[in-house]
């Protein structure tokens, strides 16, 4: 695969982020990527690089821009739970900047990991052409949150205790709402299985590993192949 251009970007004076641009001549479809709970770390840098290599301009807003992870984590999760708040405003601002670029097409998708996967589900009916949730928490009111949603792809781990029923619930709701979807559960994986390396640092990383939240390269490879095929179908490449 080619190596995309990866750079830090100032979306607004208060909001930072990371931008990945494919190698070669565009225009390319656009994708907003929402980071996991640990923010824009090495795992998220690897994920944005991987998606951009497939032929997408990808922008990941830093939802912790206004004070770092410790200060912003609670507020970000409150926004996720409420379905509104600063985090959603920041993602919308990032989307507006991304879609205004001359090197992108008129197609835009959203993808998220962990916490970001929850945001991706809530954004699926907010003007995107395709949405991918990777082990993202489900909205409280699935019917309301997913009514009128764009096509949705989901990847979940069968050993993820907090999200063990996610596939069944998403399948049932999206089928009822007649939303095109493809939700897969990987029996041998836990939470965060798509990360290239153990997330959480030396302390939290050890605890997460004990709970089964650890990389599974085999399942991650399959999940990425599904994501690439899904976005190619709905966004082009």
TrEMBL record:
Native organism: freshwater metagenome
User: What is this protein's record name?
Assistant: Unannotated protein
- GO molecular function per UniProt: hydrolase activity
Pfam families in alphabetical order: DLH
Q: Which InterPro entries match?
A: AB_hydrolase_fold, Dienelactn_hydro, Dienelactone_hydrolase-like
Q: Report the residue ranges that make up the Dienelactone hydrolase domain in this protein.
A: 16-234
Question: What does the record list as coiled-coil region(s)?
Answer: none
